[in-house]
Design goal:
Length: 90
């Protein structure tokens, strides 16, 4: 991973945590919420950030900060396929 990619992941990790801080303790966010918040333009360039957001969320899972859920249930990030949600660790 390049230094630029790592810097982007760190920024996305911060964005995820900031978005969760603004919500109820048990609330979730969609990865697209973080991608849109981190994207500097008003076009659909945020879509390019979707996989980096998912990587950032996995980093935060490893750090014990967040959980990844599907259907309201916590899932292993390595096993998650399809739409996910992110919430603070309970």
């Amino acid at each position: 991973m390049t230094q630029s990619e790592r810097k982007t992941e760190r920024r996305l990790e911060e964005t995820i945590l900031e978005l969760l801080d603004r919500r109820a303790p048990d609330a979730t966010i969609c990865p697209s919420d973080a991608a849109r918040a981190a994207h500097d333009g008003d076009d659909d360039g945020w879509r390019e950030l979707m996989e980096p957001v998912r990587r950032a969320a996995r980093n935060l899972v490893e750090a014990g900060e967040v959980e990844i859920t599907q259907g309201g249930e916590r899932v292993d990030p390595a096993e998650a396929r399809g739409p996910i949600r992110i919430r603070r660790t309970r």
